[in-house]
Amino acid sequence: MSDRQTxxxxxxxxxxxxxxxxxxxxxxxxxxxxxxxxxxxxxxxxNQPIGVSVAGLxxxxxxxxxxxxxxxxxxxxxxxxxxxxxxxxxLVAAVTMSSGVSLISFNQIEMVPAVAxxxxxxxxxxxxxxxxxxxxxxxQGIQAVIWPLITTVGYMLAFGIVVFFGSEGQEWLVxxxxxxxxxxxxxxxxxxxxxxxxxxxx
Length: 202
What we know:
This protein is mainly alpha-helical. It has one domain. It is about 85% helix and about 0% strand. It contains six helices and no strands. The chain is globular and about 50 Å long. The protein starts with a helix and ends with a helix. The relative contact order is 0.15.
């Protein structure tokens, strides 16, 4: 691999990490804000199931959008539609997160342990998003069977920043850190996958 290609690979990864960090921080704030406002509006027992479902839907959609908006446009150079990458990711994340929090609420689980919440976000966001993104990569001939695992681990570790290090008044810092971790894991993972594809083509 030439020095120029290596430089391009690292430039791609850096742009991926930065866009993921900024997107997650900005849209993460919106995600948490909308979730808490809906939770307050759903204090009446009759409104609670709908409020919880909609809150989960918006939370999943905004977090997914933050993590896929920049990377989606970066992947256009690889022949992948940014619109499909972003839209499919947001849609599946919104549905699975809404279903997950509704299930938790239905079973009247008041407190979810920290480790369980990290696992939940990884499985509710990272895994389904990774699966639909893998299908899009596969359509371009990119062998990315490991991609769902990368996104699942990425969201687990990234959300762990929020769970274990989050504190009031530091939302931007914590969500930015979440985005950096998510961007680093998925960005490096994508760079590795694309390098493998280039090596096979050569």
